[in-house]
Design goal:
This protein is α/β, with parallel strands linked by helices. The protein is 32% helix and 18% strand. The chain folds into two domains: 117 residues, ATPase, nucleotide binding domain (Nucleotidyltransferase, domain 5); 149 residues, 2-Layer Sandwich (Nucleotidyltransferase, domain 5), CATH 3.30.420.40. It starts with a strand and ends in a 9-residue tail after the last helix. The structure holds adenosine-5'-diphosphate (ADP) and zinc ion.
Length: 293
């Protein structure tokens, strides 16, 4: 059995899964203060004495560089209680089993890569477009990271000619997240994004921003698949708009798979992150090369 934690800003989802990465038990714990939240996490997993390993996908930014002193920490989050908090370290104190550690979106990417939308591929990108925007990439089975983990939501893109919105990112204002995540839509119109009609002009504009990002990711990484999740993708026509804008922006410069199979939604839905946590747990048991054939 494997344990998985999807650590989010509003809730921690904890789950236990079998050797096939199927969820056996699951619970959701509100993200309050670290001590209280951790106690509830321990209460859940203490009920399972036969866990071989655990995998954690966390909100961040987090320390993922094993050579860094902040490895295992949640670092510069706006959530003050959790800033510079050694989440992995605290959980390791309680469980002496291998524990894999990465970002929430890398975990979701791993889940989709192994058993979801990209299970037949050797590479993929996972992007969530929700309260924030974050993304992870896997190439030849390996999560792409170097000095730190990727921050695909904070890339610089150009404003749409019909959109003079200044953006809401506290660091960059009009980065991708500042212009296209849910709160940017709410700031523009004073209502929640899901309360705007399907024929509102904003959806094309959001799609244009996401498509710019996808063109950039495509040109830099040439993945076989891009998976788009998060609340904003629940907008009914969004995925089609993104494909259309992507096609216009890329202008056939490089070849990609057919866009209907290239830009897709997560096959695992809300379970992508937890499933990725199980796979991370499984991976933490050995050092083998995970590239597929
Ligand atoms: P989180 O990013 O916090 O995990 P979600 O992925 O559910 O949460 O994203 C929440 C965001 O998605 C909110 O900003 C919300 O307004 C927006 N959202 C939810 N449903 C829709 C919809 N149907 N169309 C557009 N935006 C939506
Ligand atoms: Zn930003």
């Amino acid at each position: 059995m494997f344990g998985a934690i999807e650590a989010g800003g509003t809730k921690f989802v904890c789950a236990v899964g079998d050797e096939k990465f199927q969820i056996v038990d699951k619970t959701s714990i509100p993200t309050t203060y670290p001590e209280g939240t951790l106690q509830k996490i321990f209460n859940f997993f203490d009920g399972y004495r036969n866990l071989k390993a655990m995998g954690i996908g966390s909100f961040g930014p987090i320390g993922t560089n094993k050579k860094s002193e902040t490895y295992g920490y949640i670092t510069s989050t706006p959530k003050k209680n959790w800033r510079n908090f050694n989440l992995l370290g605290e959980i390791k104190k309680h469980y002496s089993i291998p524990i894999g550690w990465t970002t929430d979106v890398n975990a979701a990417c791993l889940g989709e890569y192994q058993v979801g939308s990209a299970s037949a591929n050797n590479s993929c990108i996972y992007l969530t477009v929700g309260t924030g925007i974050g993304g992870g990439a896997i190439l030849d089975g390996k999560i792409v990271e170097g000095f730190g983990h990727t921050e695909m939501g904070h890339i610089i893109i150009r404003n749409h000619t019909d959109d003079d919105f200044e953006g809401v990112c506290p660091y960059h204002k009009n980065c991708l997240e500042g212009l296209a995540a849910g709160p940017s839509i709410e700031k523009r119109y004073g209502v929640k994004a899901q309360n705007l009609g399907a024929d509102h002009r904003i959806w094309r504009i959001i799609a244009y921003y996401l498509a710019q990002a996808l063109v950039n990711y495509t040109l830099i990484l040439r993945p076989e698949k891009i998976i788009l999740g998060g609340g904003v993708m629940d907008q009914p026509r969004m995925i089609d708009f993104v494909r259309e804008e992507f096609s216009l922006l890329l202008a056939n410069y490089v070849e990609t798979p057919d866009l209907v199979s290239y830009i897709v939604t997560p096959a695992l839905g809300n379970n992508a992150g937890i499933t990725g946590g199980f796979i991370l747990a499984h991976r933490s048991l050995s050092d083998i090369n995970f590239a597929k054939e």
